[in-house]
Amino acid sequence: MPIIAVDANGADLGPAEVAAGATAAARQGVRVLLFGPAAEMGNAGVGVEVIDAPLSIAKEANPAAAARAHPESSIVRAAKAVAAGDADALVSAGATGAALAAGLFNIKRDRGILRPALAAQIPVPGAPVTLVDVGANTEVRAEHLVQFAFMGVALASVVHGVDNPRVALLSVGEESTRGTQLVLDVHARLSSTTELNFVGNIEGHALTEGRADVVVTDGFTGNVTLKVMEGVSSKMLAELRDIATSTRRARYGGALMRPALRAFRDEISPETEGGAYLLGLRKIGVVGHGRFTAVGFESAILLAARGVSGDVVGRTHDALERAGVLRKLGPAPSESSSTVSA
Questions:
Q1: For residue range 1-18, what is the model confidence (pLDDT) as tens digits?
Q2: 296, 270 in Cβ contact below 8 A?
Q3: Bridge partners for 166 per DSSP
């Protein structure tokens, strides 16, 4: 039974909402260590252990400095529980910077990993896409993106069940000669490896067309891309709801379409997926959206549990090792080298 350490601070709706999601996840066979203000989380259900950790660093401008200065904070205590073996994975309620800093300082990056990365599944109906990186690194080198590609493939294979995932590189054109020098260098490297099913460059509009299963980019571009897509999806659903209730005739039609629209809403909702995987650490991490309801936090905890059961960390390391793209053993790079954009 996987044990998931959850930081309940940072959620827009408060720690009680995270506690409700944890209780729902525990009913499905997951044990949860819930770190946050005990007075605000109420009575957790069976399978949830509440650890009183009221201090939050979710809103700190410098999460790395805050994680070092406040070892008693909820996210740091949750990360320490994972590092000590008391839990198998870390879940954060929306504070990306704090989760990344606490993970790097305590759980540590996996052997040979240059940079951790955030990988999110874009919920495209019928053709979901794993986008990596979506916020952990604003500045990268070619070797970082090559590793991100292998991380994304391992995630898509193990957690999402994609056979031989197709990998694409996000660029301003499909031609191999288009893009920045970084994109050109990464394209050349990915094209030369036989360990990946690389299908070339992909433009932004093609993310929703099912041309690739894993799309690689830097954290700045990926974060902007993800948030634009989520904003457009949210706006379209709101407009459909308004149209369906605008007139008596529309309300009749809306009533007939309601079951199908609800299914569509659930399919494209970020809450259904549960957030982004924090890959490249020695244990699994998942970062949820701060605006999640209990449904989203339940999904985030179950997503982390699937990563543990599927050994995403071990299988990612094996794939990188086979391809020969792990960092050579030696002094580890500074943990301050990753820059958080989300």
A1: 899 999 999 899 999 999
A2: yes
A3: 197
